[in-house]
Structures are given as structure tokens and as C-alpha cells.
Amino acid sequence: MAVGSLALFAILALGVFLLLLGVKGVSKSKEEEREEMVKLVYHYAVAFITLIMVIGGGVFAFMAVADYVSPNTYIESFEDYKNMYVHQPKEQVEAGGIEHKSDEELREQYVTMKQQRIENAKQQAINSLIKSLGWIIIPLPIYLIFQRRISREKKVI
After folding, report:
1. Residue 44's Cα: distance from chain center in Å?
2. Which of 5, 94, 104, 132 has a Cα-to-Cα distance from 36 of 20 to 30 A?
3. Residue range 22-58, pLDDT digits in tens
């Protein structure tokens, strides 16, 4: 979804720039000015695309931090956990694979399971944060380079 909308924005921006290029090219027919305009359009397109990537990475990083701070995991109640244990399929009970455990043992297993799920959710959030930082760190220098080029070219023109 994000990649599709990114591509749509890039195509629209490129279309607007090419339209401006055509208007500017009609009014000034010098070949050098036309080449400079194409170069400027390319720099704007690259800067725009990399800026969108950095913004998307920032949003995903924020969501990952939120998932770490407040993990959103479904954890059933102890009663539901206990009922799942008590109501095992007949095949498992007849095969002797089920041990009868006291409520204290089940409570310990439940607490351990609950902590493990929360830790897994936090680990996934950290993994997601690292991936999101890649969407910021990699395109940011490219954006800065092209933004400087645009500024220099504007001073020349």
C-alpha cells in the first residue's frame, strides 16, 4: 500500500515537473536551459521520493516504539487457560500424554506463558524499530545531497 502510494506521488510529481518543463521549454527554446530544467526535475523527483521514504520510516519507527512501550498481545484469562488444559481431546487423555496438575502449577505456567508472550511482542517491536530506522538512515543522506544540489542550482539560475 505504501509503496503503491509512493509510486503514485512520484509519478504525479514527475508529471507536474514535465508539464512545467514543457511550458518553460516553449517560452525559452535554448537547448542548454532545457537540459538544466530536466536535471532540476530529476533532482526534485529524487528528493521527493527519498523524503517520502524518510517520513514513512519515521512513522513506522514511532509505531514500533509504541508497540514496545505498550505491547498489544492477546492473553486469555487464567480461567480460559485452565479450561483449555482441562478440556483436552480424548485421544491425548487416553494416550496418557496429559498430567493432572494443581491450580498452583497451572497458575505458574500461566504467568510464565503471559510473560513470554509480552517479551516476544517487545522483541518483535525492537526488530521492527531496527527495520524502520533503515528506512530513515539509508535515504536521508541521499535526500540531503539532492536538496543541496537543488539549492545550488537555484542560486545559479
Report:
1. 24
2. 5
3. 555 445 567 888 888 899 999 999 999 999 999 999 9
